[in-house]
């Protein structure tokens, strides 16, 4: 269980800093620590197939992250 004091500190962060924290926590996980359901796997497979069919319709994560950061004050 997450300590209530930690959650309280997180809530005091700006939205931009909270997003940065989310990214840091996500990147701290090893692939084996993230479970994926069958329906999530199907969705991921469909999106990968779409990426392979239309690679020019996609944006790299660095571009998406930069656009998101502009939206958060």
Task: Explain how this protein is built.
- This protein starts with a helix and ends with a helix.
- It contains four helices and no strands.
- With 73 residues, it is mainly α.
- Helices cover 68% and strands 0% of the residues.
- It is flat, with a radius of gyration of 16 Å.
- The relative contact order is 0.11.
- It has helices at residues 4-12, 15-28, 38-53, 61-71.
- The mean pLDDT is 91.
- It has two domains: 1-31; 35-73, no CATH class.
SSE diagram, text form:
Elements (H helix, E strand, L loop, with lengths): L3 H9 L2 H14 L9 H16 L7 H11 L2
Average pLDDT, to the nearest integer? 91
Count the beta strands. 0
**Number of helices, where a helix is a run of at least 4 consecutive DSSP H or I residues:** 4
Largest sheet: none
Cα gyration radius (Å)? 16 Å
Poorly predicted sequence stretches spanning 5 or more consecutive residues:
none
Structural class: mainly alpha
Distance between the terminal alpha carbons, to the nearest Å?
30 Å
- The overall number of domains is 2
